[in-house]
Design a protein that fits this description.
alpha+beta; ph1033 like fold; Trna Endonuclease, Chain: A, domain 1; five-stranded mixed beta sheet; about 20% strand
C-alpha cells in the first residue's frame, strides 16, 4: 500500500476550506520556520525554545507529529482529512515538499501542497475504520486496512458498510470491546505509576466507594494490615475488613505470603489482599481453602473493581487516579 496519513484540518475541521485550496497544514506557529530543521533533534530544540513550559509527554507527541509533517511525508504519499460539516473525508496526494508561510492559513504556517482526488462519506466506511479515524491526533499514519477501506470507497466499489445492519452492529460491538480493552491497559499503566503509599490509599478509596469507612494504618508492625474498613469505621459492625497491599509489579505473592496474612485474621473479619504483581496458583489455593473469607485482587482485578465503582469515588480517590467517562453508541434492536 502507499504510505497514507490523516492530517486534521484544525480543531473541529475549522480550516477545511483552506485545505481545499490545495494544502494540508499544521499549527505550532511559535516554533517558526522548519526549513532549516530537518531532524527530530533540531525540531526538539526549536520546540523547547517556543514552549519551555510544555510537559514532557505533550512535548514528545508534538515533536513527533511536527517531524513527520516536516520530514517523513514525501511527495506521492496519500493524505486524508476530515470535513465534519459534511461528514466526508477528503482524499488526496502530497504534491510538494514542506514550506513555511504564516500568511496562507492563519495559525497553520507549516504547509504541504496536496492534490485532492475526491471525497468519501464517513457512512461508506466500516466501523473499525471510522473508529481508527476518530483519533484526535493532528497527524498519524493510517494502517493498511483503514487505507484500503478508504481507497475502495473512493473508487466506488462496495465496502463492508454495505453488509446487513446486524453485521455492522456486531462490528461496532467488537470495536467497543477493543476500546474497553485498551482503556483497561492504560488504567493499569497509571496504577503502576503510583507509589506504595498511594496504592494503599487507592485501595481505601475503592472500599469507601463500596460503602465502607476506612482507615489507612500507619507504617510499622501492622501484622499485614495496611487498610482497615468497616461499615461504621470503628470495627463495631461487621464485616470488618483488613487489607494488605503489596506494590511489587514484578513479584507474585506466594502461598506463604497469603498464609501469613490469613493467620492474622479473626472471626468476624474479612481479608482483602491486593498485589500489583499478582499471585501464584498456590497462593490462590490458600485463599480458597481459608476458613476466614479472603479475596485476592491482582492488578487486572483491582482495575476492574475500580472502574465498576468509580462513579462513587470521592475526591481523594479521583485525585489519585483521574479517569473520565467515555460515551459509546448503545446497542439498538
Amino acid at each position: 500500500m502507499p504510505q497514507a496519513w490523516m492530517i486534521r484540518a484544525g480543531e473541529g475541521g475549522h480550516v477545511i476550506e483552506a485545505f481545499l485550496q490545495g494544502f494540508a497544514a499544521i499549527g505550532w506557529e511559535e516554533v517558526g520556520d522548519l526549513s532549516g530543521a530537518p531532524t527530530r533533534e533540531a525540531i526538539r530544540a526549536l520546540y523547547a525554545k517556543a514552549y519551555p513550559d510544555s510537559k514532557p509527554g505533550k512535548a514528545a507527541n508534538a515533536i513527533a507529529m511536527i517531524f513527520k509533517f516536516r520530514s517523513t511525508l514525501q511527495p506521492g504519499h496519500r493524505v486524508v482529512s476530515y470535513d465534519p460539516a459534511k461528514r466526508e473525508y477528503l482524499v488526496g496526494t502530497v504534491d510538494g515538499d514542506y514550506f513555511y508561510n504564516p500568511k496562507q492559513i492563519t495559525g497553520y504556517p507549516h504547509l504541504r501542497r496536496v492534490k485532492w482526488d475526491g471525497r468519501v462519506s464517513r457512512d461508506r466506511l466500516p466501523v473499525s475504520a471510522r473508529n481508527s479515524l476518530g483519533s484526535t491526533l493532528t497527524l498519524f499514519a493510517l494502517d493498511e486496512d483503514v487505507w484500503n477501506s478508504i481507497a475502495e470507497a473512493l473508487s466506488g466499489k462496495p465496502t463492508p458498510v454495505d453488509l446487513p445492519v446486524q453485521d455492522e452492529k456486531a462490528e461496532l460491538e467488537e470495536t467497543r470491546e477493543e476500546a474497553i480493552g485498551k482503556a483497561h491497559e492504560l488504567i493499569k499503566d497509571q496504577v503502576l505509576r503510583l507509589d506504595d503509599s498511594d496504592l494503599e490509599y487507592l485501595t481505601a478509596a475503592l472500599l469507601r466507594a463500596m460503602g465502607y469507612r476506612t482507615r489507612v494504618t500507619p507504617k510499622g508492625p501492622d501484622r499485614g494490615v495496611d487498610v482497615f474498613a468497616s461499615p461504621d469505621g470503628l470495627g463495631f459492625q461487621e464485616p470488618r475488613i483488613k487489607a494488605e497491599v503489596k506494590h511489587r509489579p514484578k513479584t507474585s505473592m506466594g502461598a506463604q505470603d497469603v498464609r501469613s496474612f490469613i493467620g492474622g485474621l479473626r472471626d468476624g473479619e474479612r481479608g482483602l489482599y491486593v498485589s500489583s504483581g499478582g499471585f501464584t496458583k498456590e497462593a490462590r489455593y490458600e485463599a480458597e481453602r481459608s476458613k476466614v473469607p479472603v479475596t485476592l485482587l491482582d492488578l487486572d482485578e483491582l482495575v476492574s473493581a475500580i472502574v465498576t465503582h468509580y462513579d462513587a469515588f470521592d475526591s481523594d480517590g479521583r485525585a489519585l487516579l483521574p479517569l473520565i467517562r467515555v460515551y459509546w453508541p448503545a446497542a439498538t434492536s
